[in-house]
Design goal:
- The protein is mainly beta.
- The chain is 0% helix and 40% strand.
- The strands form 18 sheets. Strands 25, 27, 28, 30, 37, 38, 39, 41 and 42 form a nine-stranded antiparallel sheet that branches. Strands 57, 58, 59, 60, 61, 62, 63 and 64 form an eight-stranded antiparallel sheet that branches. It has a seven-stranded antiparallel sheet with strand order 26-29-40-31-32-33-34, with no helix packed on it.
- It starts with a strand and ends with a strand.
């Protein structure tokens, strides 16, 4: 029969050309749909007939039971709010029954049983399926419409005034022997009524009683009125909208409540009293006090849009790991839980991504095992996983049995978007472990339950006190970046108690207890008012002061105060102004006495044995008295900038007149010598280089006085004022009348040396048409401390350039070190360069030059002025061969020991993309570290970086930190200078 469906039985969505009959709960059949008409627009939407063409449609095949129509007609001008007329062919043939119905037919499992009521006795009589009788015993039907079915009962209602079947067959469920009866009256299912006196079921048609059914027995068992055991009672269900049922009794009531979210795993009532022991929100960086982040390779974390995005990056074998500083604290017979948000993106076969309550050896987690979402158990370092397809409660794939629902309809979960998960377990070694997710309908859905009891001799995990952990570990190749996103963590226990011995700290959580201080007013009847505090929480006292009031601060904090300097504990706290001008601070000398120590590698400055250096920050010079009580072994003065890498300190003996420092190990002989030296690095030590004998020790004095060498001056060469040792055989012990190298323990003066500042022509018009130097042995500098230079280059003919350099040697010319590079000379003409006072530390100097291009006539002249005065260290090198387009390309190193300031100058040609140049330092000319901020070069101009660290490394160089592209370098210059 054709009917019109009620609007609540379908959903119209013009934007997708669909009409969904999901609300019919599986009763919809596509073959019975006749037509769909939009009565608002007057348009035909769908027709089951072949004409008109273009108004057909298809039904869904991906969902059961094919209850979504996708129509072919245009949806132009239609809206979801339009009124539809849906014509449908109903299976029901409603008929109105007239007269008294006194017979019935029951069908069970396809077997039809006829029955009539005896008019005289009123008893029901069961007859065969092929014979049905009226009340007077005459046959009504010779055959019965056979119906197929399962366990359901079908009832046929018949009337004695009609010679045949007049009622519709009504399907009646027969579940657990519970019988219910309904009747279709004009297509409306009418619920039956129960006679409260006879306990008979009354079925009516048009208000006329049809048949009384006695419910004094069910399934052959008698049912009496009143309370009965469950086995003798009718099964019922409480309505979904059942109002509250009051429970009253004067005696204790036992109520068995099915476990829900208001109880933990062991049935302990929670009532909202979850007690977090770990709380981390990722809308801002949590900080090292809450979480420890560890990364390898290209692993990283980025906080954006209110959550943290942890990622492996594209490098092979990268990782990102986050571990909470706090851990859960387990209490027996209570639940431990962890709730957190997570979104897993780009899972891949070479990556493990997980989050949960676990550490390196124990715990539980969820995440991806390669490309498969799984749950994990880690016990004693052994990990097992269960894939999503094997979840034993809900696979979260949208099956009809799933409790992960939206608007009551199951849907498949997406692990790529943020979802709220929870892991719960009540350890005791063998309690269950629940893995849950929060559904769109606001319900916690248990998707996997590890039923631990009665399964293992050992506990589920070996340690239940666990941190919250997130980890992404990339185990192999592939350039894909795998990410795991989280917004918030919370973990703890259902126990509100902690051991009384637990220590509280800044991360401990506690309930707030607030109080209000009130006081009685002095006026207005003495009422009570609240006491005020200032914004910092201090009590506010209002008072009115007139005139001049003297305040005597005789006490501060209950402690008596008097004028004059006191110890810190008896002084008032003050703070210097933010714009405080410079304050002169006198750092007193520091005296330390080292312990007796003879073992190799120990620092004699230390009061306790060990190699650790002595921090000399803020001091400029040192004096050390060394006590050696027996011969044997050796010691060496050393300094370092990092307390790890050590180099020798040149030191001087106070009682020595030699201007040459001691630059190596000092043999252990019986002595109590005093040594002094300048401080150029942060750490110093007196290192035992060979096992000492006796009871060696050292007393150290650190001072802010600038160090200066001792220069011996002789007024008269007589034995009374010379520290002279007579050598050879003496025939008499008379007065020494002449001091010469032969009879004095001193070095003879080099011929031609003088203490005066006299100009020396080291080179005069030496040809420089080819690269060369001023000589293999160089020029001695033993009798001077500083030198000034004037270098003149003359290019007469040719096309090329000259790069000249001043070098020094410490080993009489065997090896040479560049100490100052001159500016490049190019083009025909004369160029003079002046080099200011330059400190020379070696025993010889020479001049070298490099010619680029072709010069046919070129000369160089050098005038040098040696001086006995001290001079600041000055060093400079040029580099014009570094490749600015190659990462890690470096200049030669510059010896900068004793310097305090460093400049880096980069001059680029006008082409390409300029590089980033980094200044580096080293103590051994092999291992390098960065100094200051990298310098970004500028194409076509000169850029410079100046560092005033107060302590420059032993060696400096420049290196390419970020390669340029198509860039050309003119030169890089490194210049270092110091006060002494």
């Amino acid at each position: 029969m054709k009917i019109t469906l009620d609007p609540i039985q379908f959903v119209f969505t013009p934007s997708t050309n669909t009409v969904s009959f999901v609300p019919m709960s599986g009763a919809f059949k596509p073959e019975r749909l006749l037509a769909v008409i939009n009565t608002t627009t007057g348009k035909l939407v769908y027709s089951a007939a072949s004409q008109p063409a273009g108004f057909g449609g298809t039904f869904s095949t991906t969902t059961f039971p094919n209850d979504t129509l996708t129509y072919f007609s245009s949806n132009a001008g239609q809206s979801a709010s339009d009124i539809l007329q849906v014509l449908y062919d109903s299976e029901t043939q409603p008929q109105i029954v007239s007269g008294n119905v006194s017979s019935y037919i029951l069908e069970s499992g396809g077997n039809t049983i006829g029955g009539v009521q005896d008019a005289a006795s009123g008893d029901y009589k069961l007859l065969t399926a092929s014979n049905t009788y009226a009340a007077d015993g005459t046959p009504i039907l010779s055959t019965v419409d056979p119906m197929t079915g399962g366990d359901g009962l079908n009832i046929h209602l018949q009337s004695s005034s009609y010679g045949g079947q007049v009622g519709n067959p009504i399907p009646v469920p027969n579940n657990n022997n519970a019988l219910s009866v309904g009747f279709l009256n004009n297509s409306v299912l009418v619920s039956p009524a129960m006679d409260p006196v006879t306990n008979q079921l009354i079925v009516q048609s048009s208000g006329v009683p049809l048949q009384a059914v006695d419910l004094t027995s069910v399934d052959g068992a008698p049912i009496a009125l009143g309370s009965a055991p469950m086995g003798s009672s009718l099964p019922v269900t409480i309505a979904s909208d059942q109002t509250a049922i009051p429970i009253t009794s004067s005696s204790p009531i036992n109520v068995n409540v099915t476990q829900s979210v208001s109880q933990d795993i062991l049935g302990v009532a929670i009532g909202g009293n979850r007690n977090n022991q770990i709380e981390i929100a990722f809308n801002t960086a949590p900080g090292a006090a809450l979480i420890t982040n560890t990364f390898t390779g290209s692993g990283s974390v980025n906080i954006t849009n209110g959550h943290s995005i942890y990622q492996t990056g594209t490098s092979t074998s990268s990782s990102a790991r986050a571990v909470s500083v706090q851990t859960t604290t387990y209490r027996p017979a209570h639940e431990i839980y962890a709730a957190f948000t997570a979104a897993f993106q780009t899972p891949q076969a070479s990556c493990q991504s997980r989050i949960g309550l676990f550490d390196a050896s124990n715990g539980f987690a969820i995440g991806y095992n390669g490309g498969t979402f799984s749950v994990f158990v880690r016990n004693g370092g052994v990990e097992t996983s269960t894939p999503q397809s094997s979840f034993n409660t809900d696979t979260l794939t949208g099956l009809s049995t799933s409790k992960f629902k939206r608007n009551g309809i199951p849907e498949s979960i997406s692990f790529a978007v943020s979802n709220l998960f929870r892991i719960r377990f009540a350890w005791l070694g063998s309690a269950n472990i629940f893995f849950e997710v929060f559904s769109p309908d606001g319900e916690w859905v248990l998707f996997h339950n590890i039923r631990q009891p009665n399964t293992s001799f050992n506990p589920s995990i070996q340690n239940p006190n666990l941190p919250m952990t997130l980890e992404l570990v990339k185990t192999g190749g592939g350039l894909t970046n795998s990410t795991l996103t989280t917004a918030c963590w919370g973990a703890g226990t259902t126990s509100a108690y902690s051991p009384i011995t637990d220590t509280l700290n800044d991360k401990s959580l506690a309930a707030l207890t607030r109080s209000v201080i009130t006081g009685v007013t002095t006026g207005g009847g003495g009422g009570y008012v609240n006491v005020k505090v200032n914004p910092s929480g201090a009590l506010v006292t209002d008072s009115t002061i007139s005139g001049t009031v003297a305040t005597n601060i005789s006490q501060y904090g209950g402690t008596a105060t008097t004028l004059g300097q006191k110890a810190m504990t008896a002084s008032m706290p003050v703070v210097l102004a933010s714009d405080q001008s410079s304050v002169n601070i006198g750092l007193p000398d520091l005296y330390t006495a080292g312990a007796i120590n003879t073992a190799i590698g120990n620092n004699l400055f230390n009061a306790v044995a060990g190699p650790t250096g002595t921090d000399a920050s803020g001091y400029k010079s040192a004096a050390v008295q060394v006590f050696l009580t027996a011969a044997g072994g050796s010691i060496e003065f050393q300094h370092s900038s990092d307390n790890t890498n050590w180099v020798t300190i040149p030191v001087f003996r106070v009682d020595s007149v030699s201007p040459n420092p001691i630059t190596g190990v000092i043999a252990g002989v019986i002595s109590s010598n005093v040594y002094h030296f300048p401080i150029k690095q942060r750490y110093i030590r007196l290192n035992v280089t060979a096992t000492l004998s006796g009871s060696p020790r050292a007393n150290l004095r650190l001072s802010q006085e600038s160090w200066s060498p001792i220069i011996p001056v002789s007024v008269q060469s007589v034995a009374g004022n010379l520290n002279a040792t007579v050598s050879g055989s003496l025939t008499s012990a008379g007065t020494v009348t002449q001091a010469t190298a032969a009879n004095l323990n001193c070095t003879a003066v080099v011929a031609g040396a003088t203490l005066a500042s006299t100009a020396v022509g080291d080179m005069v018009s030496v040809s420089t048409v080819a690269s060369g130097n001023s000589g293999a042995t160089g020029i001695s500098t033993l009798n001077s401390h500083a030198h000034s230079f004037q270098v003149t280059n003359l290019i007469t003919t040719g096309t090329g350039s000259i790069d000249a350099v001043i070098q020094e040697s410490y080993d009489a010319g065997a090896n040479w070190i560049d100490i100052f590079h001159l500016d490049r000379v190019t083009g025909v003409g004369t160029v003079r360069q002046q080099i200011p006072s330059l400190k020379v530390n070696g025993d010889r100097i020479r001049y070298a030059w490099t010619v680029t291009g072709t010069l046919t006539t070129a000369t160089m002249s050098v005038i040098r002025i040696p001086r006995q005065v001290t001079s600041g260290n000055l060093r400079r090198i040029y580099n014009r061969t570094l490749d600015p387009n190659t990462l890690g390309s470096s200049t030669a190193s510059l010896f900068t020991e004793g310097c305090e300031y460093t400049d880096l100058i980069v001059n680029m040609a006008a082409s390409g993309t300029a590089p980033v140049i980094q200044l580096q330092g080293s103590e051994d000319n092999t291992n390098w570290y960065n100094i200051g901020t990298a310098l970004t070069a500028t194409v076509g101009s000169t850029t410079a970086l100046s560092l005033a660290d107060g302590s420059v490394p032993k060696f400096c160089r420049a290196t390419v930190a970020t390669a340029g592209a198509g860039s050309t370098l003119n030169y890089i210059a490194i210049k270092a200078k110091g006060a002494s």
